[in-house]
Prior knowledge:
Layout lengths: L17 H20 L3 H50 L2 E10 L2 E8 L2 E7 L3 E7 L2 H21 L8 H37 L1
Antiparallel strand pairs: 1-2, 2-3, 3-4
Amino acid sequence: MLFSSPFVHSVHANPTNVLDWIEEDADEEKQEEVNELEPNETDTVVEQVSSSDSLAFNIVRMIFALLLVLALIFVISKLLGRKNKLFNQVKAMENLGGINVGTNKSIQIVRIGTKLYLIGVGENVELLQEITEKELIDQLMMDNSSESQDSILSMFKPKTDGDTNRNSNTDFKKLFSKELTKLKQNREKLVAKQKEDHHE
């Protein structure tokens, strides 16, 4: 009775097993690691500063990589465009040039094989004349080949002035207008000849 008390106390003991002991050991090891890290607070501050520097460096590196990828895409698209242009020059059909004569109407010189044709393009496409003069054909082909060679050379040298392109364009326009006047004269002769045949 000495040790008795008017209040009843009950104590329940939780049975421990091996898993609980392993978990307690793991918790103690983690606590020891945390205790070891606390004295090195100055090291964590240095690591935070270096990680922020690393973040800025990573952002700069990412921007540089993005610019590099964009530049590569631009260069590849230009090279493919020029490759396609060179490939088109080898084809059997080629448009050598043309001039607009009205709304949705133009006159074009087209090469098919070794022959050149002057065609009118509007609501429909009509053959105006086959170009048979050898010197005119040679001149047109030479102008066209020099234009393509200039485009190949322009890939390797910077564009300093557009005078050469303007000169070749004006030469082509002069040659084209000369051909148009010849065509006009031929047409007038044919109309006059038809009138004479019709009157007889």
